[in-house]
Specification:
Length: about 140
């Protein structure tokens, strides 16, 4: 059965890979370490945002996450994944350009030369400027 290429690929990616990863993961059983191993930079980016809000004692933040096109062109790294997974990992309510409640955003993520920056949104005009900036990176 393993001579058929599709089964061989399935076995290597699912069974064999799991067995190899198990020996690495069993040494550190914390959930945080497992998430970091499994999701990599996505998880780290999410946790950095969560820690920012915790360290600055910001309660009930709603963060406007940039679209992937904005991240690719302005930083060439960082990816939050979907808003649902962001919320799952952080407990922070995210909104994006497609959200109905985008006007509830209290903070936004913007690109800087050395990485990302979290900025408070102080007015509706500021929110609109950020939205316009995000949209300028979207394909037409």
């Amino acid at each position: 059965m393993l001579q058929i290429p599709i089964y061989k690929n399935w076995y290597r990616s699912k069974i064999h890979n799991y067995y190899r990863e198990f020996h690495v993961q069993k040494n550190d059983l914390s959930i945080d370490a497992r998430y970091r191993y499994r999701f990599g930079k996505n998880y780290d980016s999410n946790q950095n945002l969560k820690n920012y809000f915790l360290e600055n004692r910001i309660e009930n933040p709603v963060i406007l996450l940039p679209p992937k096109e904005y991240l690719k062109k302005s930083t060439n790294s960082y990816d939050w994944g979907e808003t649902l997974s962001f919320y799952y990992f952080t407990g922070v309510k995210p909104v994006d350009l497609k959200s109905d409640d985008i006007n509830l955003a209290t903070h936004a993520v913007t690109a800087k030369a050395n990485g990302m920056q979290i900025i408070p949104i102080g007015s509706d005009e500021m929110l609109q400027r950020i939205i316009d900036e995000y949209k300028s990176y979207m394909p037409k």
